[in-house]
Amino acid sequence: MTDSQFTPRVFSGIQPSGGLTLGNYLGAMKRFVDMQSADFETIYCMVDLHAITTWQNPADLRHNTRELCAGFIAAGIDPEQSVLFNQSQVPEHAQLAWIFNCVARMGWMQRMTQWKDKAGKNQQNASLGLFAYPALMAADILTYHATHVPVGDDQKQHLELTRDIAIKFNHDFGVDFFPVIEPVIEGAATRVMSLRDGSKKMSKSDPSDMSRINMTDDADTIAKKIRKAKTDPDALPSEIDGLDDRPEARNLVNVYAALCEQTPQQVLAEVGGKQFGEFKPMLAELAVTKLAPISSEMARLMNDQAEIDRILARGADRARAIAAPIVQQTYEIVGMVGAKNGA
Ligand code: AQP
To answer: Which domains are delineated in the chain?
Structure first.
């Protein structure tokens, strides 16, 4: 299979499982905006079917889906240029996920670290959907024959599994039908860590609100969270090597670098030798400058939820126009009988 067989096409998604965090923004959404201006067709999705793999209050799910849509647009996604929609409005995702449930192997799923982390010690009580999550993710991507998938570092293993599913499907059915995707994991903040524990990822579902910066936090809250962020007593180093074994310091430097679009080394050249008492206010000011326009635009967009729903419905129509023929062809390859399924 040659790469040129497939149109360069970007797909990625974010779960409406809570408010957007700085981790989602720097690891994913900011990258989505960058790719929109490049030479790609871009498709971005609020993955609500993924969100319900853990319990979601229905009213919260509706609110979070609309707020996430507002976040995409406020961050710079143009719903005319990109296809922007929520997953459940395009049934082809779930249809292809079932086929992939029958391609993926139990052993592959059991190795997934996200499954182990989220199910924890209570795997018997976790939902079957949480276990099958990566097959749905593969379907999200491959139902558009996407070639490039920008994500944070935590999703790397799921993208490798997507490649394995595409390769096994193509091999089992003797076709060159699904592309073998390229993960795009780039930037200074591919894994933003918790502000309370430098060994844990910043996450919307962390029980501690102090562990994360939410895109809807006001300036005082952002400044307070950064002031209280866990650090160590030493001054910042001038060289990257000086961040070894200092996960909290590394995290704050990476966040600063990603926000001002520099490398961590460039940041250290500027701030090396400073104590956290001096660096934290610099970081807070930068974060507020970059995030405040996004959060105020999100609030403005949330005043017209009917317009958000129209954007999502229109995006879903455009998405289905791409996805439906690909799922139809998949059914034909697999041997499903139906009026539209060929011989
Ligand atoms: N801390 C992070 N640093 C960098 N990137 C991150 N992403 C998430 N957290 C960080 C990236 O954001 C995209 C969307 O993630 P998701 O919402 O689908 O699920 P997640 O990775 O499980 O994110 P959360 O915030 O931790 O959600 P919950 O708490 O619901 O599980 C992905 O590209 C992800 O890499």
So the answer is: 3-190+304-334 (3.40.50.620), 209-300 (1.10.240.10)
